[in-house]
Amino acid sequence: VRCVQETVMVGFRKGKTWSPVMEKLMIQLVDLGMEQKKYLLIAEAINSFKGISQVSNASSLELVINYFFSKVEKFFTDIYSQTQEGLLEQVGQEETGENLLLSALNVKQTNAKEALKNAWTILWDTMRQLLDILSKNKKLEGLYQQYSDRAFDMCKKYNSKQEFKRVTECIRSHLQTIIRLQGNPKVSALPMYINLGDAESNDVQLKIRFQQLTISNEFEQWQESFKTIEDINILMAKRRGTKAVKPSGLSQYFQNLATIFRKCEYYLYHTYCLYQHFQIYRRYSKANLEEINKKASQLVLAILCTPPISIENELNSESKQRISSLMSSSGIVLTREEMVNNIRYNNILETASPKIAELFYLIEDNFDIFSFTTRTEQILKEIAADDNLKPVSYTHLTLPTIYSVQISVVAVSLKKKNMPHT
């Protein structure tokens, strides 16, 4: 194995070009390396083979990488299929005294766990090494995206939040390296240079991050989701002045950002992102009227849950600027009052569910603290019982919430009226 690896590395250092013989050598090296468990040597040889083949025959490199990973994946699945259900969940967990005692009493299960842990480690080490190899080459962008998606799918399949975090850190480091090389005259002249201003390269990076964002939301890793949103925002900023991001991408961006802000209880930001998402969705998507109705209903309910004085006001100026830049290039976010007016005059109420539109009129236009309770409570119960509205309902939209929001609205309004004119 070492001999074949050195042959490839010497070929790379001497500037040899790709040949079918080199490809056959690499396939044989993978077979021998797997038999002798020399996984790191295989990865090093593939990295050298990349230098020989990445320009002249990228498809050959793809063939070797796919062959190698299929072997590693089979090695893992063969061991995994023979282990007891639930054993993989114990891999990576801290060993307690009770677990060590049980392991000592059950040698067979301990051996199975060690074998599974070893195969699991090899699988993920190989995945990260291959991602490193593929990350900085324009000609290999498609394969890089393919393996990124494959890594995310594996995290989801085996419900591995720990490995998901490691993969995202790996992919984020690749993006930081690419950003650092932007505009470097020594690198930009090379054929494998990745220019994030190029729409095609930018789209590949965005697709990876949107897939990453979907999984992090499913795993409820909100801090990771926020970091991913920041990466997406950086990528979108890099292509300004060239081909714009597709409306579907922007719509997805604001929808995910709204989900993150809702979990953080930043209701003003949540509502603003929903508003941006709805505007794009209604204008550009080919969705039917029912879907648009649900989106409009969700937006109206979100506004009704948004207090005029929210916790966003407690953020320091640096945090406000950082978060606002994710929602608007100007850093300006609409207030609750401005969004309420937009709801009234942009044909959104007419698009929403009649029950939710009526609730809006009762609360925002005809609010009477002494008389509106009965009808409002009835509408809230109807919304909760309506299966079509369950996906857009807000569990914290209750009468006490409405009272507190509207009292705050009145208080803010009175304060503005009583302020001395300057």
Structural descriptors:
mainly alpha; 72% helix; 0% strand
Brief summary of the model shown:
This protein is mostly helical and 422 residues long. It has 20 helices and no strands.
Description:
The chain contains 20 helices and no strands. About 30% of the residues are buried. The model has no long low-confidence stretch (mean pLDDT about 85). α11 (about 200-220) runs parallel beside α13. The protein is about 70% helix and about 0% strand. With about 425 residues, it is mostly helical.
Topology, pairings included?
Layout (H helix, E strand, L loop, with lengths): L1 H12 L6 H17 L2 H15 L4 H23 L6 H4 L6 H9 L1 H28 L6 H17 L3 H21 L3 H4 L10 H20 L3 H17 L8 H17 L3 H18 L4 H16 L12 H11 L8 H10 L8 H12 L7 H13 L13 H20 L4
Largest sheet: none
As a whole number of angstroms, the C-alpha radius of gyration is 28 Å
User: Judging from the principal axes of the Cα atoms, what is the shape?
Assistant: elongated
SSE arrangement, N to C: HHHHHHHHHHHHHHHHHHHH
Query: What is the assembly state of the chains in this entry?
Result: single chain
Count of beta strands: 0
What structural class do you assign from the helix and strand content?
A: mainly alpha
Mean pLDDT: 83
